[in-house]
Amino acid sequence: MPAASRSPSRKPETKPDLAMTIEHLRTTNDELQRKRADAEKDRDLFRDLYNKASTHASEVSKENNALLDRAMLAEGQVRDGLEMVKGMYEDRIQKLEKEVEHWKGLYQVLTTRDARTNDEVRRRAALEPELRHQNEQLRGDIEILAHDYEPLDPQEHTDTIVEVSREVKIVSLLAE
User: Which pairs from 13-22 meet CB under 8 Å and 24+ separation?
Assistant: First the structure.
């Protein structure tokens, strides 16, 4: 293009006007060059920040995926582990409940037997003084009868002594 078409619509007529116009154009050009350089710096800065943000987003995405995988694995392990522990403790509880039932039954048997034994011992202990007294009386009666029956027939005497002796033995057995 011709130089005249690029210049402002008004043509400077003097050298000082031309110098001023050139100076004005240089200043404008310098300012535009500076703005262009700033814009390129901003572009490079934004490109760098975008790349860093993109890289960071990729890393965060990978980390999130890894954490999700670990969380799913941990949840599976927890679920399976809880089921295993629950099963183990349920088995132990059942075994312990069976053992408790066994011991309760044994306790019941021993308590019942002890109560019967104690009842029998108390009954015998209560009867002992009375039976001892009866035993002493019967022994005394035997001695008296033995003296009284000496003059009688020996066969009658033996039958009576045997009968009284049986009564003494029965009372003695009851006392035991």
Answer: none
Asked whether the beta carbons of 161 and 145 are under 8 A apart, the reply is: yes
Contact at 8 Å (CB) between 174 and 129? no
Residue for token pair 């060059």 = 33
Q: Against a cut of 0.85, is the pTM above it?
A: no
Model pLDDT, residue 126: 83
Helix then strand then coil, in percent of the chain rounded to 5, is: 90, 0, 10
Question: pLDDT tens digits for 68-114?
Answer: 999 999 999 999 998 999 899 999 999 999 999 999 999 999 888 88
pLDDT value for 151: 63
Give the Cα separation of 58 and 56 in Å (integer).
5
CA distances from 128 to 117, 133, 155, 165, 169 (A): 16, 8, 34, 19, 15
Whether residue 29 is predicted with pLDDT greater than 60 in this model: the reply is yes
Per the CB < 8 A criterion, the answer to whether 176 and 133 are in contact is: no
Domains in the chain: boundaries: 12-175
Q: What are the residues whose beta carbons fall under 8 Å from the beta carbon of 128, sequence distance 6 or more?
A: 175
Q: 164 with 141: CB under 8 angstroms?
A: yes
